[in-house]
Amino acid sequence: MSKQRLKSRRQFLQGTALSSVFLGFSLPVKAQSSLTELQQILPESMLKPGANFSNYGQPSIYEKDIIRWISANPNVPGNGVSWTPLEELQGTITPNGLHYERHHNGVPDINPSTHEIMIDGLVDTPLTFSIDALKRYPQTTKICFIECGGNSNAGWRSSPIQSAAGYVHGLVSNAEWTGVPLKLLLNECGVQPRAKWAIAEAADGAALNVSVPIEKLMNYAILALYQNGERLRPENGYPVRLLLPGWEGIVNVKWLRQLTLVEEPAMTRDETAQYTDLLPSGKARQFSFPMQAKSLITSPSVGMTLPDNPGIYQVTGLAWSGNGKISKVDVSADGGKTWVEAELQAPILDKAFTRFSLPWQWQGQYAVLQSRATDETGYQQPTREALITERGDNSFFHYNAIVSWEVNEDGQISHIYL
Question: What pLDDT shows up at residue 307?
């Protein structure tokens, strides 16, 4: 760099020539010369006024491709999903605008000033609660994931699907949820001894309703009003949703309107015809609420290409378990023949995303990348072969097998089964 350019940069750092421009003073000849030199070395963005304030922040226009990918029923557009682009994100918290969606009949437009939650059935005193009333109760905060029971179900197919990691495994997101512990309201209503289940019903066009054990509601449930510090988004349950950390997404009922306490489950459509799996024995796997330990390498992953220059690359991804904290994640570059323990990034939270990472030296060789999570109960993420042996080939839900990314000598990455 020339001495003159160094001098100009020093002037900028000291705030001399540039401050005069901002303050609108007339410049002497020498200062004008310095300004001309600054214009030659400074980025254009620093030489003109920036954008105005905004009432609500939006992502940069240069990040417009980082979006949820929508997969909806063409005949019923309100029935479908949108996927979180896990491969495009870092850290563990999913932005509200990228949290995955699953809707059975679209997103309802609910006025919070008229919406109420009723608790009835086997209670001493049936009560209704407005949103304003809920806001006056003590609130608690929980960082946790919510995962659709159908997440990753493409893994049951006979051939591996070649889509971006988030568009196969992205029906899971992790957020900070804040709301009222449900037990406060249940205690106020007076739960009768005969009550073992509750029927939770949504205020959407599908009137979705599912059965939930009272024990879970009394010990872990939250009526969530806030997500990542702001009021829930409509697609995530505004004005209030039921939060059951670690359990499949269908029971985390959005747009909650009623809880009816009963002795037995209602055997609704979404716990009989749906969200059950036929096992090899001929019996159906039902009320399989907890999401088992799972992990996914998000980078490098399918669809990505390693650059031509071999070297050290950071293998990173996410692990989570509905049974508690992640205790370990192992990574393999040879299809599971050998494993190396990855570093877990803090904080490691209960029923929440944990990010793992490991430096990997790639010298242009063929490789198969895998990750394997173990949670604090000792449960270890199974291979695909082990999962199918246990569950058969008629399953659709709760797929949590190890995922394999094949890296060829040209650095192209694809999804394979082992």
Answer: 86
